[in-house]
Amino acid sequence: MAYSSGRVVIGFCDFVGGIVPLGLLYAFGRFFGWAGYAFAVKHRRIAIESLTMAFGKTKTPQEIRRICRECFNSMACLAVEFFMFMKHPERIKKFVDIEGIDNLKKALAEGKGVVAISAHFGSFPLLLSRLAQEECKVNAVMRHMRDQKLDELFEDKRRLMRVGSIYTQPRQTCVSQSLKVLRDNEVLFVQLDQNFGTGGVFVDFFGVKAATATGPIVFSMRTGAPIVPMFIYRLGGPRHRIVIEPPIHVDESGTKSERLLHAVERLTALIEKYIRQHPHEWGWIHKRWKARPKEEKQGAMAAAAGDVDIDIA
User: Fold this and answer.
1) Which of 59, 127, 152, 278 could disulfide-link 55, Cβ–Cβ 3.0 to 4.6 Å?
2) Helix (H) or strand (E) holding 113
3) Which residue, 127, 19, 108, 122, is CA-closest to 75?
4) What PANTHER family has UniProt attached to this entry (predicted)?
5) What backbone torsions phi and psi does residue 120 show, to the nearest 5 degrees?
């Protein structure tokens, strides 16, 4: 039932994005955002909890709720806007500026491919489409969607915009395809901002340890491909700006574990910087801090055991 409803919503966004005049498109988006904030109670609660984790010491509850509403509006506008741009690709160059394209071209000139690091921040599908228009061969690493029909729909859209898809499962296929992309001197786009369960490493994210993947950095170390962080945010209405940061190479000093940790810390700090500047552009409905470090769990268990001993005594 949930998947059927999702297909209906996506189908309606596709329809609206194709026929509604640009001036009215964002009014539709804001309406959907209001509806999502009002009725998606579970996701609203997660977003407010996440925002409180990040900004509880610096922002009031009223400010946090305002950012939460803006986040829902942003997600809804991005949804209808995505389909509008897919139906009118000629508008992408007109409305999406790129700052730092020379950084990407300089990195590709090394001939080892590029590991592009970003986040679920702003209209990242639009970022990929815009890079493809710059004659960059772009491939995005992503999870399969739970609904196969929606999965196929979005893969078709990406193919239409000349963006390749590399799925995280099966794992070995993902690894081999990713390495091939880099050896072919193409762009491997990876989002480094989601909870990585018990894998990866724990680094500070808004002052709280968060499980973060190391795979993209391993790819860079294995192939020599530079890491190029890039982000997209809205300037207003349909206008967006892509910022491509200077290339980063993984430090060569220290153990492999130390090099991995330092690179992940540096990239996570950069992601946090952009989220702080544009907090409504990030997907706060994701449980970024769900996984906890082993030592933290052990401490909680020891404290609980201590409580039990006291109670028994």
Assistant:
1) 59
2) none
3) 122
4) LIPID A BIOSYNTHESIS LAUROYL ACYLTRANSFERASE, PHOSPHATIDYLINOSITOL MANNOSIDE ACYLTRANSFERASE
5) -80, 70
Cβ neighbours, 10 Å, residue 270: 18
Q: Which tens digits make up the pLDDT trace of 203-222? A: 999 999 999 999 999 999 99
DSSP H or E run through 21: none
Contact yes or no for 76/29 (Cβ under 8 A): yes
Q: What is the pLDDT of residues 243-288, one digit of tens each?
A: 999 999 898 888 999 999 999 999 999 999 999 999 999 999 999 9
Residue-wise DSSP of 130-197? HHHHTT--EEEEEPPPSSHHHHHHHHHHHHHTTEEEEES-SHHHHHHHHHHHHHTT-EEEEE--S--T
Task: Return the structure tokens found at 124.
Answer: 């990242």
Q: Give CA–CA dist 188/179, Å, rounded.
A: 9
Number of neighbours of residue 268 by Cβ within 10 angstroms: 21
Q: Any idea where the domains of the chain sit in the sequence?
A: 92-298
DSSP-H helix ranges across the chain: 2-19, 22-39, 41-55, 61-87, 90-95, 101-108, 124-133, 148-160, 171-183, 215-223, 256-277, 294-312
| pLDDT over threshold 90, residue 307 | no
What does the alpha-carbon distance between residue 245 and residue 43 come to, in Å, rounded to a whole number? 32
Beta bridge partners of 236: 239
For residue 212, give both structure tokens: 């973060």
User: Which tokens sit at 282?
Assistant: 């990030």
Instruction: Compute the CA torsion angle 84, 244, 144, 31 (nearest 10 deg).
Output: -40
Count Cα neighbours of 105 within 13 Å in the Cβ-side half-sphere: 7
- Looking up tokens 């973060």 gives 212
